[in-house]
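haha ok so turns out i had the wrong file open the whole time. this is the CORRECT one, sorry everyone. sequence first:
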Amino acid sequence: MEQALEQPTPKGFWGGLALWKKILVGMILGVIAGSVLGPDAEMLKPIGTLFINAIKMLIVPLVFCSLVVGVTSMQDTRKMGRIGVKAVVIYLSTTAVAISIGLGLSHLLQPGAGLAMTATAAAGDAKDAPTLVQTLLNLIPKNPISALAAGNILQIIVFALGLGVALNLCGEKGKPAVQVFESLAEAMYKLTELVMKLAPYGIFGLMAWVAGKYGLEILLPLFKVIGVAYLGSVLHVVGFYSAVIKFIGRLSPVPYIKGMVTPAAVAFTTTSSSGTLPATIKCAREEMGVSKGVSSFVLPLGATINMDGTALYQGVAALFVAQAFGIDLSFADYITIVMTATLASIGTAGVPGAGLIMLSLVLTTVGLPMEGLAIIAGIDRILDMARTSVNVCGDLMVAILVGRSEGELDTDVYNSTEGHSTAGTNDGIVTARQEIA
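then structure:
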């Protein structure tokens, strides 16, 4: 009798599914529900909104605590600076490549050709792109508490880095504070585990709302631009990222492609690279074999400044607008778009809809009509899904690359097919306490 009581309770069909499979089921059911209900699917949106709000609740404390713990785990401040420089250089370089892919595909496939639209207002009313000096000045928070309250991720990162370095320099006196942040980080990982269990239900609500609101009637006229953006996203991840891992990291890209499924699925449905950060950290540590120090430092940084998918979208959207309004862009305009989108990516938050902010800067810089922004906004949610997935996949790629170069990548874990076949158990999320040093 006692032995019978000790038997584990069967999880059933739903309980035994991996997280990404539950998310996929939620997406499919959401699309079906939205198609059936139409505009009435708006009533399901609060389910998704609750999930998004819960994710946003995690972002600031998770990023702050993860960064402080990541920095304090690196006793060598020179090493931290070296890793930071590597990450930033790779992030900005891949962003420039991404927007070039978007521009190239749009120039080749002409998604906006034949629309023959006319502008009714000047494009100069939009906010000007921030200068490099302004961007650098805005990195330092005048009041770190205000930065935390406002969710200014860049300023939070700078403050967390500074605090982590200072705690390391304090030596023994700083250890009690370090232990506090480690405990807080553990609590955030646990809270993340609980919130992520709600993902399939929240995603169901979001997808039902999207399908009910946009439908095929609105999507069909813009199907070509959606197709170009998705094609560019696939080429960038499967082609470019895989090539970088193989030829620069000297690793097989297959484990990377398998391991990124869950974070990419979460990013695709939540459209928030910052909100996907818990799943990205979990994947990097437990499936990719990246150490705690590198993953806690590189991934929160990437969730803010790595906007490869968003930059690729800028290239597609800018040329779509130019073609739709019959405006010819020069080679200098192409270079300007690449530079503006790369710079703007540094200060763009990893939250849903941030791509439209960047697009307004790009359109203004090259003098394209701002009406184009309104056209793209109608399908922004669908485009946002693809570009956020690319952003998150890029974060993982850089974490692997930096970990490999620093000798902090467990290649046995990375190459373990068993690890990937069991990924997603326990609802796809286990605590990030299981660290790979």
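Residues 30 and 204 are 4 Å apart (CA to CA).
again sry for the mixup
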